[in-house]
């Protein structure tokens, strides 16, 4: 983290979880372009290193599993030793399975709760005091989902976890009124990323591809990264409480236009 000593006084220093792929990696790229110094977090260190090599000294990284207490504490300690933090972008998350409530795997549900809800809560709690000490105040941002607004068949476990993530962000916002911290919830609809649907369907590429089949232009990770940088770029006293962003072709999860 030598580069961060150099940038130790930078006021725009962000931590991005889930930075090894998809929306998280795109957010790191966009934030760097917008003048931020970024600490990239995820479990796959080789991917984080590749991102840091690509983007140069503005990016450092720490391998971290946010479902693990010791791993997360060690990462937070390293981050805070290297300097102050102004923003936390909670992007790490996943869907596991798309089974009906009647037969869904308890392990899938447990995995989504552990990652999307408890993992996000864990790192947010650990970084909150430091965020509030940032000059001008800090920001907690979550990438939730429209799955946390409208549930759909087969999605109960994922939707429930994303409802919980959104409630956490909303209640944190209420509880921190008067404190120097913003809480921002970005809820994307369909975003075509390389791994999200593949992981959901246990590596079944055909099933993953079918999610986006015929949809003229699903959102790209870069579209969400743009929302992240824009929301963070507002004055410290302006809180973009919620952004709901979908492709034009998607009215809701169950109302999607597809070309034949
Ligand atoms: N794609 C969509 O359509 C969509 C729509 C709405 C919301 N979202 C949300 O946006 C976020 C990112 O999605 P995405 O499409 O970019 O998916 P993705 O490419 O699969 O990214 C998920 C990220 O989370 C990290 N991660 C997974 N488990 C982790 C753990 N235990 N500890 C730390 N990091 C972990 C992964 O890295 P490692 O495996 O290296 O740890 C990866 O970097 C998720 O929260 C997702 O629910 C996605």
Automatic annotation (TrEMBL):
Classification via SMART domains: PKS_KR
Ketoreductase domain segment(s): 12-180
Keywords assigned: Oxidoreductase
InterPro entries, per database record: KR_dom (IPR057326), NAD(P)-bd_dom_sf (IPR036291), SDR_fam (IPR002347)
Any one GO molecular-function label of the UniProt entry: oxidoreductase activity, acting on the CH-OH group of donors, NAD or NADP as acceptor
Keyword Oxidoreductase among UniProt keywords: yes
Keyword Oxidoreductase: yes
Similarity comment text for this entry: Belongs to the short-chain dehydrogenases/reductases (SDR) family.
Protein name, entry field: Oxidoreductase
Biological source species: Bifidobacterium moraviense
């Amino acid at each position: 983290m030598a580069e961060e000593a150099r940038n130790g006084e930078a006021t725009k220093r962000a931590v991005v979880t889930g930075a090894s792929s998809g929306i998280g990696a795109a957010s790191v790229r966009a934030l760097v372009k917008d003048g931020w110094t970024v600490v990239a977090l995820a479990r796959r260190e080789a991917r984080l290193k590749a991102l840091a090599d690509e983007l140069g000294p503005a990016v450092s990284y720490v391998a971290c599993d946010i479902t693990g207490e010791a791993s997360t504490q060690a990462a937070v300690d390293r981050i805070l030793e290297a300097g102050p933090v102004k923003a936390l972008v909670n992007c790490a998350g996943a869907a596991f399975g798309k089974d009906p409530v009647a037969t869904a795997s308890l392990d899938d549900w447990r995995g989504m709760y552990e990652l999307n809800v408890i993992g996000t809560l864990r790192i947010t709690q650990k970084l909150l005091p430091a965020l509030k000490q940032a000059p001008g105040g800090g920001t907690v941002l979550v990438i939730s989902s429209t799955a946390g607004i409208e549930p759909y068949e087969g999605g109960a476990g994922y939707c429930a976890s994303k409802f919980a993530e959104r409630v956490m962000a909303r209640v944190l916002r209420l509880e921190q009124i008067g404190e120097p911290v913003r809480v921002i919830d970005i809820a994307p609809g369909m975003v075509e990323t390389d791994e999200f649907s593949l992981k959901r369907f246990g590596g079944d590429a055909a099933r993953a591809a079918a999610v986006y089949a015929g949809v003229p232009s699903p959102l790209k990770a870069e579209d969400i990264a743009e929302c992240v940088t824009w929301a963070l770029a507002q004055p410290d006293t302006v809180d973009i409480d919620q952004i709901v962003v979908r492709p034009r072709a998607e009215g809701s999860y169950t109302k999607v236009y597809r070309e034949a």
